[in-house]
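We store sequence with structure; for instance:
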Amino acid sequence: MEYSELVTQDASEAEIQRFLSDGEQVAFTVRIPKNLKKAASDVASMRGMSFSAFVRNCMIQELSKRS
């Protein structure tokens, strides 16, 4: 199943989050301003998580929102 199918089939937020968090890990590179990276790293640290976990969480939350 693909993400687009979940959205068009009106899957629940929990089902979408489960789908997005499953699967094998893959590395990718993204270029962002240094200040944005530092701020995100600081917030992640304050929440007791890594920068990568924070970014994954943000992406999952955004992609599982109801429009």
In short: The helical segments are 3-8, 13-21, 34-46, 51-63. The chain has a mean pLDDT of 93. The CA atoms of residues 3 and 16 lie 7 Å apart.
